[in-house]
Amino acid sequence: MFKKIPIILTAEEILERAYNRSKKIQINDRDALYKTKKTIIAKTDSFATNVIVALEKYVKEFPSIDHLPLFYQEILDIKIDVNKLRKSLGAADWARKTCQMIYSKQARSLKKSKKVDFLKQKQSEIYGRISSVVRQIDKELVLLAEAQNMMRNLPTINDIPTVVIAGYPNVGKSSLLRCLSSAKPEIAQYPFTTKEIHVGHIEKTEKYITKRFQIIDTPGLLDRPLSKRNEIEKQAIAALTHLADLIVFILDVSETCGYSIKNQMHLLAQMEEMFSGSSLIVVENKADFKKTDSTNIKISCKTDEGIDLLVDEIFLHYMSKDEDE
Asked: In what order do the strands lie in the sheet with 297-298?
């Protein structure tokens, strides 16, 4: 979705590229004066045009923040701050217009004069003024580059039924995603291994009906108020808020995740309250290690115990939802 965003250069990189391209230009003419004049005009035009086109490309090809799905808007706000991003885009557009104005006004003087010294002076003035304008927005260009790099790595979210996996860190969310889909998230035995959103897909066919689901693994959540959650946790909340049709909440009753079942149950109650509009399935992972007598689905991502049962439950949820609609 964001692969087409152009690579954003720094102010010095824009100017250096424009200058290097202009240096290569040489106009031939039998008349030595006109040869010099035409070359100076062509070099200046090339320099100004390269700068203006680069800035215009950044503004026009950067996706409109207000037209992005809410999930992406919130992720951008968490990681970059959309207000700063808007200001940076506005600064780039201001610089484009200002450079265009500078060149348009000074270009007339270049075309009228036949004095080489004057032509070179005007060329130097144009280079200097345009360079000054571009350097004024260097910080904004750096921020746009950060946003571009981040956005190009965001997962593609499809408009299909979406299951979001949630729970405390290290309870097995990434392992479950790998069991359910072809996605291969990083898995390790320490909290907050998942620092980003990972997306996988699964298909199930029953009675000639094939249903494709999107499975999203989110960073681990701790039992604390939203105001105290870190950037990693806020990404999980964004996915749950904007993407989840169904939440699969994982409990680790063995407590080998490092968190008590009491704390996990408190987080579950919080999730049920916060996302009352979404359906929720509670599963107990690490069934190969410990089981309870609860009615929750028991799974083991090591032995695949209960995985097929969970897939059936997800499928039934969407079948019944379609029938209700």
From this structure: 198-206, 209-217, 162-167, 246-251, 279-284, 297-298
Q: What is the tally of structural domains in the chain?
A: 2
- 17 with 40, same domain: the answer is yes
For the full predicted model, state whether its pTM sits above 0.90.
no
For residue 8, give Cα distances in angstroms to 56, 92, 131, 189, 300: 11, 11, 17, 37, 45
| β-bridge mates for residue 280, sequence order | 247
What digits encode the pLDDT tens for the residues 125-138? 999 999 999 999 99
In a domain, 304, yes or no: yes
Return the sign of the alpha-carbon dihedral for residues 221, 224, 225, 228: negative
Exposed, middle or buried by CB within 10 Å (0-12, 13-18, 19+), for 197? buried
Q: What is the CATH number of the domain that holds 221?
A: 3.40.50.300
**Domain check: are 50 and 140 in the same one?**
yes
